[in-house]
Design a protein that fits this description.
Blueprint: H1 2-23, H2 30-42, E1 68-69, E2 76-80, E3 83-87, E4 94-98
Antiparallel strand pairs: 1-2, 2-3, 3-4
Length: 99
C-alpha cells in the first residue's frame, strides 16, 4: 500500500510542478520592453476586435489574427481593443499585454 501512495504522491507533485511552470509569466527585460514599445509607436497598427477572446496571459489568438514582427524579438505583436499584445508565434498564446 505504501508503494501505491508514494507513486500517487510523486505523480501529484509532478503534475503540480508542470502546472506551476505553465502558469509562470514570461519575463521580458526592461530594455527589450522599451525596444518593443518604441517599435510599436513607429509602426502603428489598426486595432482589431476578436469576439470571444479574452485578453489574458495564456489566451490563444485565432489563426485569422495577423501577427506582426518586431525585429530581433522572438515574440510577435498585434493591437487588440487598443491594447498592444505580445504573442508567442509558435503557440499563438498571449505572453504579455503592454500598457
Amino acid at each position: 500500500m505504501r508503494v501505491h501512495l508514494s507513486t500517487a504522491a510523486a505523480g501529484f507533485l509532478l503534475l503540480a510542478g508542470i502546472g506551476a511552470a505553465a502558469a509562470q509569466d514570461v519575463i521580458i527585460a526592461p530594455e527589450q520592453e522599451t525596444v518593443i514599445k518604441e517599435y510599436v509607436k513607429k509602426q502603428p497598427l489598426a486595432s482589431v476586435k476578436i469576439p470571444g477572446v479574452e485578453l489574458n496571459i495564456g489566451s490563444p489568438l485565432p489563426d485569422t489574427v495577423e501577427l506582426h514582427e518586431v525585429p530581433n524579438v522572438k515574440y510577435r505583436y498585434v493591437v487588440v481593443d487598443n491594447r498592444t499584445v505580445l504573442v508567442d508565434p509558435g503557440t499563438r498564446k498571449i505572453v504579455k499585454i503592454i500598457e
